[in-house]
Amino acid sequence: MPAKQKHNTVRFEMLLTPELAEHWEALAESNGISKAELVRRRMAGCRTKTIPQVNWKCYWQLLKISENINQIAKTQNAATIQGVNPPPIDHIPFEELKIEISKLRLQLILGTASQEKMD
Q1: CA separation for the pair 103, 21 (Å, rounded)
Q2: 3-state SS assignment for residue 86
Q3: How many CB atoms lie within 10 A of CB 41?
Q4: Cβ proximity of 70 and 98 under 8 Å
Q5: Whether 56 contacts 63, CB under 8 Å
Q6: Are 88 and 72 within 8 A, CB to CB?
Q7: pLDDT value at position 113?
Q8: pTM
Q9: CA distance 95 to 21
Q10: For 1-119, where are the alpha helices, taking DSSP H only?
């Protein structure tokens, strides 16, 4: 049985100065959400800032790098298991590198602690 959707049925009104209303409108528009959704998110303590496009590009580039590292490691491991000497490569701590790339990807999407304090 599908979960019931919550519908916002209680109206909440507030008075703002024209300057503040304009600021909130601009903030909501820059985040691609309505003013009502902006207020809901702020009151719930949720992040309202959108993720910059450059972060998405870096995220996907890091994903591709991570996949390439995985392929290199698998090839090296397969060659070792088959008793073949794998092609020589510089010693790279693959597991540590994969962990660091994952951390970077999370920071790009979720933001760093210093960015969240600025929100």
Answers
A1: 38
A2: coil
A3: 15
A4: yes
A5: no
A6: no
A7: 47
A8: 0.41
A9: 50
A10: 18-31, 35-44, 53-81, 94-110, 113-118
Q: At which residue do the structure tokens 């760093």 appear?
A: 112
Residue type at position 37: E
Residues 65/43, Cβ–Cβ less than 8 Å: no
- Enter the tokens of residue 103: 């951390």
How far apart CA 44 and CA 37 sit, in angstroms, is 10
- Per the listing, tokens 């719930």 go with 44
HSE-CB at 63 with a 13 A cutoff on CA atoms is 9
Contact, 97 vs 105, CB < 8 A? no
Where along the chain do its domains lie? 14-49, 53-118
Length of the chain, in residues: 119
Q: List, run by run, the mean pLDDT of 10-residue segments along the chain (119 residues).
A: 72 89 86 84 75 74 86 86 81 78 80 48
